[in-house]
Design a protein that fits this description.
Elements lengths: L3 H8 L11 H10 L16 E2 H9 L4 H4 L9 H10 L2 H4 L2 E10 L4 E11 L2 E6 L6 H9 L7 H16 L3 E7 L1 H12 L2 H4 L2 E7 L6 H4 L2 H6 L3 E6 L13 E5 L6 H4 L7 E2 L2 E2 L7 H15 L3 H16 L6 H6 L1 H13 L3 H28 L9
Parallel strand pairs: 4-5, 5-6, 6-7, 7-8
Antiparallel strand pairs: 1-2, 2-3, 3-4, 9-10
Helix pairs in contact: 1-5, 3-5, 7-15, 8-9, 14-18, 15-18
Length: about 375
């Protein structure tokens, strides 16, 4: 079965005039936002360079290894995807601009975005998902008790700047957290800019708390959002989704590996879809939702802050740093745990206990939904 690389090989010589921009094209541009384009793509919306030229420059840069360090948790075939897109008629002439990246430990923000100008009447804003930085993962977790998080605020600013610097309609998209940012930017940008949105693509990105989804600004864009999830999603199912959700077939069996867009099956100009989520995905969804409902925002914040306080004791900047010296880091983590105030440590342990207890009570619900769930317990 084909994936997004095969799609370029098959459709790469077909222009957007002959075959309009589609959901697979959108995923490809979203995936490219994971690459470090610093110094290759201009920071302003007026400084535009053809994707074909960017692909050539990127693949021949002297610091290619350093630029791909952030791909520790992202499929390294993304570089190959850029080169294939750059060499194709379909993507090669697209102009790239306004690449920005910010990783701020103090603000607990990890944000990156890049714009693609398809033609004079259509533009695509791609928001990066979570990279390998601990800051990025901390910000993701902060969504459990904070709204907006800094990256969401930055996505709104980026959208408003894009509308000031570009002409024509706007499509927004992103994978993982990037999908969440695309939706948030669309909902809370200036009203006049919201009117320019053609469509919004969320690829296995988490949803939002109910209070956000029910806001008038959010409700206005619901018809424009299409969310795609693999059948065993573990990321996209988080929080609330009121929009249309399409379930995509993946080549991997384990849910966490299905998060990788390169495992999603493509047929023609669309994804191969299945009837619904698997029972293990539904189990995670119900368990996490019930768990969060039993914790007020202060307890959520305390749990997450303490968890990352312990991880920060290792002085690791990325998940790769954390795993490279795991024996040393394990000792530092144990030492850090010992220095946490007893009341805080007890609160964290109680929160973990509540999660396990919630998971146990969720099982009967899932069994009722699907008798096949029993197979997962054996």
């Amino acid at each position: 079965m084909n994936n997004i690389l095969d799609y370029i090989a098959w459709r790469g010589d077909v222009s957007f005039e002959l075959s309009p921009f589609n959901e697979v094209d959108s995923l490809i541009l979203s995936q490219l936002s994971y690459l470090d384009f610093a110094g290759l793509v201009g920071e302003s919306f007026s400084d535009q360079t053809a994707l074909s030229k960017i692909a050539h420059s990127f693949s021949n840069t002297s610091d290619l290894d350093q630029r791909t360090e952030d791909l520790a948790l992202v499929n390294k075939s993304t570089v190959q995807l850029l080169i294939a897109a750059g060499n194709s008629r379909r993507f090669g002439d697209i102009k790239m601009c306004a690449y920005i990246k910010s990783t701020d430990r103090a603000k607990e923000e990890q944000f990156a975005a890049v714009a693609f100008v398809l033609d004079k009447k259509l533009n695509y804003l791609a928001f990066r998902g979570t990279d390998g930085s601990l800051v990025g993962w901390k910000e993701d977790c902060n969504m459990a008790f904070m709204s907006p998080v800094p990256a969401q605020q930055s996505s709104v600013e980026y959208m408003n700047s894009a509308c000031a610097g570009l002409k024509g309609e706007i499509i927004l998209g992103g994978h993982s957290k990037g999908g969440n940012l695309a939706v948030y930017a669309s909902a809370f940008c200036l009203p006049k800019n919201q009117k320019r949105i053609k469509s919004i693509y969320n690829y296995d990105g988490p949803g939002f708390e109910r209070t956000i989804v029910e806001k008038e600004e959010f409700q206005a864009i619901l018809p424009l959002i299409c969310t795609y999830m693999p059948q065993s999603s573990v990321v996209g199912i988080l929080f609330e989704h009121y929009e249309t959700c399409v379930v995509v077939e993946s080549s991997k069996n384990v849910g966490v590996f299905q998060h990788d867009p390169f495992t999603w099956f493509v047929y023609g100009t669309a994804f191969v879809t299945v009837g619904g989520l698997t029972t293990d995905s539904i189990f995670i969804d119900i368990t996490v939702k019930h768990w969060l409902e039993q914790l007020d925002k202060d307890k959520r914040e305390q749990f997450i802050d303490t968890l990352f306080e312990v991880l920060n004791a290792t002085h690791a900047e990325t998940l790769t740093d954390l795993s490279d010296s795991w024996v040393k880091n394990a000792r530092l983590i144990i030492k850090a745990l010992a220095h946490i105030e007893p009341e805080t440590r007890e609160a964290v342990l109680q929160t973990f206990h509540l999660l396990f207890k919630t998971a146990q009570t969720t099982v009967p619900t899932i069994v009722e939904l699907s008798p096949h769930f029993k197979n997962l317990l054996s």
